[in-house]
Amino acid sequence: MSIAFDIRHLGGTHEIELFNRIPYALNDEIADDLEQGRRRVEWTWLAIHEDRLLGRLALWSPSGSTDATQFDILDLDDALSDDEQREVGAALLDAAHGEAIAGQATPPEFARYLPADWRERRAERRATETIMALLEASGARFVVERLRLQWEPKAGIPTPDPRLDFRAFEDDDEVLDLTTRALTGTLDAHSRGELGHATPQEVARAQFDEEFARYTTPREWWRVAVDGAGEAVGFVFPARNSYHHIVAYVGVLPEHRGNGYVDGILAEGTRVLAEAGAPHIRASTDVGNLPMANAFARAGYSTFQRLINMEWN
Q1: CB of 269 within 8 A of CB of 299?
Q2: Where would a tag sit more exposed on the chain, N or C end, judged by fewer CB atoms within 10 A?
Q3: Tell me, what CATH number does 224's domain have?
Q4: Domain assignment of residue 75, given as a range
Q5: pTM score over 0.90
Q6: Are residues 61 and 192 in the same domain?
Q7: pLDDT reading at 304 higher than 90
Q8: Computed over its alpha carbons, how large is the radius of gyration of the chain?
Q9: What is the pLDDT of residues 42-65, one digit of tens each?
């Protein structure tokens, strides 16, 4: 390589401008993430030549977590040659693995946030394909590409389904029962992967403990959809994470699929958040989950980004 470089950690918040010299979707969140403990300087690595940023890597976790749960920043200077990008990227990965990732019982999942048309953008495609190749060489595998979706008030609240009524969940046991039942026949790649080595009950419990129970917004927002006979047909989890109001989960129970209930359930989740004052609502679904992607489109959600996930076994 023609450029010598050093690998080091972020020196502190005074270096955020340096860290953000490579454009990326998450740059505007870095400062607040550091302040709130979702990122730590010991979870950031920079490849530096004199005062030039050649590449960077960072991990993330929910506030209060001991281990990193997401590896969501790996960027390389587009001006580097292909060989130079591979060398810088490999050095950053080696540093992160040696200091943090290898010491975790469960390695953090890789997430790359991309423009919706990233394959048509030369620089984005080159960078992403290089990074994916580096990760594959380190033992990671592709999991899924997801659509990142956004609803805005100008889209209007979707029309409710007159066949459905909604109520709050009775208790956590009902949450676990319905989320367990909804896993049958799921098209979600993460859930399908987890079901390969765990029971539906175990997968639902992990989802609840590691994700749903962390939301601090009212549990009354979570809604069970019931038909005219009072039977539960599905559910929706509207919430707010550390950044945005979100539709965290939409589920239709297997015995009620094919009846078009998903539109009404999603409409209810959107209504709850809109009435709570959400300036916009975020959601996501797998590219391959066409029924859910189509439901979001009908409800006025547009694709503003894509997300690629990879993981180490």
Answers
A1: no
A2: C
A3: 3.40.630.30
A4: 6-138
A5: yes
A6: no
A7: yes
A8: 21
A9: 999 999 999 999 999 999 999 888
